Amino acid sequence: MEKQKRKSSVKVVEKTVVAPDVGKLPPQARELEEAVLGALMLEKDAYSIVSEILKPESFYDPTHQLIYGAIQGLAMQQKPVDVLTVVEELKRQGELEAAGGPVYVAELSEKVASAAHIEYHARIIAQKYLARELISFSSEVSQHAFDETVDVDDLMQETEGRLFEISQRNVKKDVIQINPVIREAMNNIQLAANRKDGMSGLPTGFKELDKMTSGWQNSDLIIIAARPAMGKTAFVLSMAKNVALDFEQPVGIFSLEMSNVQLVNRLIVNVCQIKGESIKSGRLSDDEWERLDKNHKFLYNAPIYIDDTPSLSVFELRTKARRLVREHGVRILIIDYLQLMNASGMSFGSREQEVSMISRSLKGLAKELNIPIIALSQLNRGVENRQGTEGKRPQLADLRESGAIEQDADIVCFIHRPEYYRITEDERGNSLVGIAEIIVAKHRNGPTGIASMRFDNEYARFKNLDDYAVGQKYVERPSRMNSHAKNASQGNEVDSAVDFLSQNKEPLPF
Questions:
Q1: In sequence order, what are the beta bridge partners of 216?
Q2: 57, 107, 140, 257: which one is catalytic?
Q3: DSSP label at 458?
């Protein structure tokens, strides 16, 4: 009778959980909740075991939420946790009666003998809580889906965002003993030692940059940043061509700025050495038509996968990236560019917070897929306001919209072309015309510095300095493209390539 009176005075603070089928109770484990709370008040080290697994809302019973909240508060203040201290903490908060009173709190400690199985019990409670969240979430989505005034595309974006948020809150990765990690690290060192080029990661084809980074490393987030018109897209397309054609590694490109045809046009300009204006107008000289017919076929069957979805959300990117890696074995992802992405379905106080969330998600995705992810980024106008040769070089503080980009990235590179600012000579009098600097400003696992290369403005491409001989015509370095050309001259045509001029009757897609 006494217990019933105590229960009648309990203040209801339970969060409503919508169940789709009437008559079904939400997933719960009240007995385990009681056992865990009792164990927490018996063993002084018990809280450290469950602190990363449980939070107050993990408990189904509202009285248990209040009691665990009091235990959590005591532990954070580094105060002892037992029946008396918990009762005093609840009394101080004015929630003792709502939590069932001092007798109920004392009864909890009597229902368990030890904290031997507290972690196992806590994980069951956490799973029940996650199940309740998913039930509530799916019920809300179902209700909105029946509402004809709701835009389905917006609903899908919001649903994906909410689901991602739930998964991020509840999924924890267990620790691992160091031995298997040492074996993996030693194996990677051995593999790198066996390679003649000394690369431990994915080579870019740019010698000075590869020497500094040993190639792009798996699980790294690489930021390539520059002011507009500095050649960010040209740089990553030149790199994508090297990776896909020279090293035969699949590349995924998410282009938020250009359509897939525009991007392929840029690749054709790069590979065939035809001016961009000629491609746009279709007015090619005989020599350009010959180069187009001879070289465009090298792009056929190239392992390059393009997605030109505009305003891509980070949640859509995760889904598509997983599919690219699973179905096509993609070894590197390129995103052009970060500031055009969004995190639809989640609310933020500012755009800076949204960009921070996007950069954290990209780093998490790189770790999950175990491949390098390259994201292009804009710089603010600070570069334009500084004077002198050194002043025009970008700095980490110039990254636009969020300092989290610098924090999350493993490597931050800036593209700097002195010629763009009418700086044609360095302090020693050397010509800077056509020279581009890739400034490695942050390198979490290696040196920083400057990798110099040639920027061919006419064909919007970056090349190694030694790919050009002074006073001579450009000579392509040995690559898969050249081997195909040799085979073709001996009568072995590329299977999927056709004679562009004689057999392609469709209008050019330029």
A1: 202
A2: 257
A3: T
